[in-house]
Design a protein that fits this description.
This protein is mostly helical. The protein is built from 13 helices and no strands.
């Protein structure tokens, strides 16, 4: 049991440190890109080459993994589950099918099981490692989806402004979104490109926009789709409507950021309260290995541990429900 606690603490610490460092790097990169945009000052050539090389190497490694997954899943039909992984892959922006992602989860489970089993020389640790590999794949997918949705929300205001200006210049709505698809980066550029491809294959524009709305899962974009559908049925000045929606979207984004800043202390408290018992147990096990033996060897101790875990989960869920305010 001590090995399991140590492994979970190590894994949790690694994930927390990696997420924190990656978040700080992303913030620094975004700040530098914004400064470059407005000041016309370019980063030093060496730093730019290093950043580009790292990005290319990361993308090349990811593409090799995707190619391996596609080859292994060619003759595999996948497992029927209630989750639509095909839609999840589209939301995450990964060039995989649902069955291919299931194969990727299987590979991660095998890798995690072998790694943990060989390190600990314990079959039970192998099962824990396999579960950790699957969990890592699912968490990575959810992080990619959230990151893509956040990027989409940040681009939506600019997209509406460009479409509105194009409509005022005499473009049709299809011509406007085609221009935006060429000018804007992913995810909005790719999503609008998918809308254009669907319409060229005979899908009505209304259905194509609804498909895009189901992929991006954005309440702000739902306003845009509703406005466009109503305008196509009853008429009206679409450019003016899009300007109004753009202002509304910008206000909602600003309000979300303010709410996130005000609730940051609550989120931090939830993480600390959830990690504190695990960290304290790990420290006590390291300082005095026999101190916590009654918790694992006696029935009352095991009941206390189970009750504590259940209360930890409930408390973390309640705190998240309090601080996560939908706007």
């Amino acid at each position: 049991m001590r090995f399991l606690i140590a492994f979970l603490v190590m894994l949790g610490s690694f994930i927390f440190c990696f997420a924190y460092i990656h978040g700080q790097q992303q913030k620094q990169k975004q700040l530098e890109e914004r400064l470059e945009t407005f000041s016309h000052i370019q980063r030093p050539q060496q730093r730019r080459r290093t950043f580009t090389k790292r990005k290319v190497d990361r993308e090349a490694l990811q593409e090799k993994f995707f190619v391996l997954v596609r080859k292994l899943s060619q003759n595999w039909k996948g497992v029927n589950v209630r989750v639509d992984y095909d839609l999840k892959m589209q939301q995450a922006g990964w060039p995989l099918l649902g069955k291919e992602f299931q194969m990727a989860l299987l590979l991660l489970a095998l890798a995690g099981g072998l790694l943990a089993g060989l390190l600990m020389w314990n079959p039970l640790m192998g099962l824990v490692g396999a579960a950790g590999g699957i969990l890592l794949g699912l968490v990575s997918m959810n992080i990619a989806i959230q990151k893509r949705q956040k990027a989409f929300a940040n681009q939506l205001g600019d997209m509406l402004t460009m479409v509105s200006n194009a409509l005022r210049s005499g473009f049709s709505f299809m011509q406007a979104i085609e221009m935006v698809a060429k000018e804007m980066d992913d995810p909005i550029g790719g999503e609008l490109g998918e809308v254009i491809r669907e319409t060229r294959f005979g899908t009505p524009l209304d259905k194509a926009l609804e498909h895009m709305s189901s992929r991006v899962q954005s309440s702000d974009f739902n306003l845009v789709v509703t406005a466009v559908l109503i305008q196509r049925q009853v008429g009206g000045n679409l450019s003016q409507i899009l300007d109004t929606i753009s202002d509304t979207v910008e206000d909602r984004i600003r309000m979300r950021r303010e709410v996130r800043a005000l609730t940051s202390q609550g989120r931090a408290s939830g993480v600390v309260l959830a990690a504190l018992p695990i960290g304290l147990a790990a420290i006590l096990s390291f300082v005095n290995p026999t101190y916590l033996d009654p918790l694992w060897n006696e029935d009352m101790g095991r009941m206390a541990v189970a009750g504590g875990i259940i209360l930890e989960i409930i408390g973390f869920y309640v705190i998240n429900r309090i601080v996560n305010i939908d706007i």
